[in-house]
Structures are given as structure tokens and as C-alpha cells.
């Protein structure tokens, strides 16, 4: 009886990892790619179920709405990159509209001068935020929440709760004109995104901002002026909020003190959905822009699908919650660890 052979057959080499799985991992590790794909899927899904969704008029409305959400999100994302937060952007945008209208109507200032002074005032508020955060170590949450409350109160105090009418036509020209079929406010959003992208991706200052958000102490020891970089992001965020406020009163042709409530939530949601880490130091403008577009697709799509307006804030809050959860999961498995 012959002994059975103990030779083990040559092991078959395991199949190489499928390209599909590599692509899936790359997409999971890249929030920008993921949110862009989500934009395409959401747009296609809603368009297939709502006939008016892709009409030119509705797309133009989305372009104007996107300019408000997107510009606020860009400013908010700059602050978040440094590890901070700005809860005042919505209320500050509302106050900016009131200030510009009040200076134009009540004080008789020309519209361009009223706009310029409003942007300077908003920039000064951002400078105040930066000084309080960097010099006195006031938590960003606290100081911007104070500004949120004061800005809402000032808007009501200046107007006594009544809208300001009879604005200079230049305000409406700024917000209601088109270049071709594209609303001018949408072009402001594209311009703000392009400038922010260039600063963050192609300048030394942008790399320093990322470094400060990644590790503030290491950035300081490396000679980076951390206080200056952090302050500059708060100034930019406040100035962009002022720009949004000016555009909104032009679109409405009236300055309403109730405008701006809740916009900070939408701005933060767009930033986080676009891949901005709430811990700072991670995120790109392309993702932020895509996050703002995605939220606008969802918000406008709910109206096109005749979903109750009262449910929209619930959806926005849910989107923000899911985005934060996905950010933590992605950071744990694909990015650097965060405490």
C-alpha cells in the first residue's frame, strides 16, 4: 500500500484586489468626491420626480439661494479650518442688511458708500472675534454666540421691528441682474470660492492656516503667526456675511430685521457635509462648494416635491447630524485620529 503523497499543491495566488474596491476606498477617503457624487444622485433623483425642478426659472432661483448658503459656508469653513466656529454669520448677515439700508435710506448715503461701510463694520466685528479668541483665549463658541445675540437685538432696535423700504435701485441691480441666464449672486459665489481656493491651495498663508488648524502649538513653534492667521479667518467670515446681507436686501428690495435666523446652521452643515473637519486642519474649498450645492438641491427639492416647509429644518438638522457622524467615521478609518 503506497503512502499518500504529503506534498501540498501549489497555493493559488489570491486574486489581486479588485479595482472597484480600491476606487470605493479612495472615494470614502475623499469627502470631496463623495459629496460631488451625492450632488449628482440627488439632483437626478429629484428631477425624475418633479417636473419643475429642472426648469430654467427654478435653476435661477437655486443659483440665488446658493449664493447665500455658499458664501456663508465658505466664510464659516475658513474659521473651522483653524479649529474655531462662528455662530454669528446668520445674525451678522441680517444686521448687515439693516445697516446698509439704514445708512442709505435714513442717512442719505449713496448705495456704494453704504455697502462699503457695512463691509468695513462687519470686518471690524470679525477682527473683534479674532482678538478675543487669540489674545484673551475666549472660546470661539462663546464670543460668536454673544455677537449672534447682540446682532439680532441691534437689527430689531435700529428698525423697531419694522422693515426698511425705498432702497436705492443699486441694491436690487446687484442681486437681480443676470449675465446671460446666470444670476449675478451665483457669480459672486463662484468668485468667492475661487479666491478662497487660491488662497488656501496656492499661497503660503493658506498652508499656514491648515498648519494652525492641524496643530496650533506646533505651528507656533515653527514660527507661524498663529494669532494673525486665526484673526484673518474671522475677519473674512464676517465680511462675507456682510456681503450676503447686502445681496439679500437687494433681492427682497426691503431690509427685514427677521432675515438671517438659522443661516449659521446651514453654513456649518454645508461645511461639514463638504468634508470640513470640526477639529480643524482638514477640508477643501471644492468640497465646501459641493456641500452647499447639495444642501440647496435638497432644500429646493423638498419644495418641488411639495414637502411641508415645516419639515425642512428637520431635514437640515438630520443632514448635519449624518454629516458629523460620517466625518468621525471617515476620520477614524481613513484620516488622522482625532480626540
TrEMBL record:
InterPro entries assigned to the protein according to its UniProt record, in alphabetical order: ABC_transp_permease
Membrane disposition: Multi-pass membrane protein
Presence of the UniProt keyword Cytoplasm in the record: no
Pfam family, one: BPD_transp_2
Transmembrane segments annotated in the record for this chain: 33-56, 77-103, 109-128, 140-158, 178-200, 234-254, 260-278
UniProt subcellular location: Cell membrane
Keywords: Cell membrane, Membrane, Transmembrane, Transmembrane helix
Superkingdom, taxonomy of origin: Bacteria
Signal peptide residue numbers: none
Major subcellular location class: membrane
Entry keyword annotation includes Transmembrane helix: yes
Name used for this protein in its record: ABC transporter permease
Record organism: Streptomyces cellulosae
Amino acid at each position: 500500500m503506497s503512502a499518500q503523497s504529503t506534498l501540498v499543491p501549489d497555493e493559488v495566488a489570491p486574486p489581486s484586489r479588485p479595482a472597484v474596491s480600491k476606487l470605493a476606498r479612495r472615494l470614502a477617503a475623499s469627502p470631496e468626491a463623495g459629496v460631488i457624487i451625492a450632488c449628482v444622485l440627488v439632483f437626478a433623483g429629484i428631477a425624475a420626480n418633479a417636473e419643475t425642478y429642472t426648469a430654467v426659472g427654478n435653476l435661477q432661483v437655486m443659483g440665488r439661494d446658493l449664493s447665500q448658503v455658499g458664501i456663508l459656508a465658505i466664510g464659516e469653513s475658513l474659521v473651522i479650518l483653524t479649529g474655531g466656529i462662528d455662530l454669528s454669520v446668520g445674525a451678522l448677515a441680517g444686521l448687515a442688511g439693516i445697516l446698509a439700508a439704514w445708512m442709505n435710506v435714513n442717512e442719505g448715503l449713496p448705495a456704494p458708500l453704504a455697502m462699503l461701510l457695512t463691509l468695513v463694520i462687519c470686518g471690524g466685528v470679525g477682527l473683534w472675534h479674532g482678538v478675543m479668541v487669540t489674545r484673551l483665549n475666549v472660546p470661539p463658541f462663546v464670543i460668536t454666540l454673544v455677537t449672534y445675540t447682540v446682532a439680532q437685538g441691534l437689527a430689531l432696535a435700529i428698525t423697531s421691528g419694522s422693515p426698511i423700504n425705498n432702497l436705492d435701485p443699486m441694491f436690487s441691480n446687484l442681486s437681480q441682474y443676470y449675465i446671460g441666464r446666470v444670476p449675478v449672486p451665483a457669480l459672486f459665489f463662484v468668485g468667492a470660492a475661487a479666491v478662497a481656493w487660491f488662497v488656501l491651495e496656492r499661497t503660503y498663508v493658506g498652508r499656514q492656516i491648515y498648519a494652525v488648524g492641524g496643530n496650533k502649538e506646533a505651528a507656533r513653534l515653527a514660527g507661524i503667526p498663529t494669532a494673525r492667521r486665526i484673526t484673518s479667518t474671522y475677519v473674512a467670515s464676517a465680511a462675507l456675511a456682510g456681503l450676503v446681507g447686502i445681496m439679500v436686501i437687494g433681492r427682497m428690495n426691503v431690509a427685514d430685521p427677521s432675515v438671517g435666523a438659522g443661516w449659521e446652521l446651514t453654513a456649518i452643515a454645508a461645511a461639514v457635509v463638504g468634508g470640513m473637519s470640526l477639529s480643524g486642519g482638514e477640508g477643501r474649498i471644492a468640497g465646501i462648494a459641493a456641500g452647499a450645492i447639495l444642501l440647496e438641491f435638497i432644500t429646493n427639492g423638498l419644495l418641488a416635491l411639495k414637502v411641508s416647509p415645516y419639515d425642512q429644518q428637520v431635514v437640515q438638522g438630520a443632514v448635519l447630524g449624518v454629516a458629523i457622524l460620517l466625518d468621525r467615521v471617515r476620520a477614524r478609518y481613513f484620516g488622522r485620529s482625532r480626540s
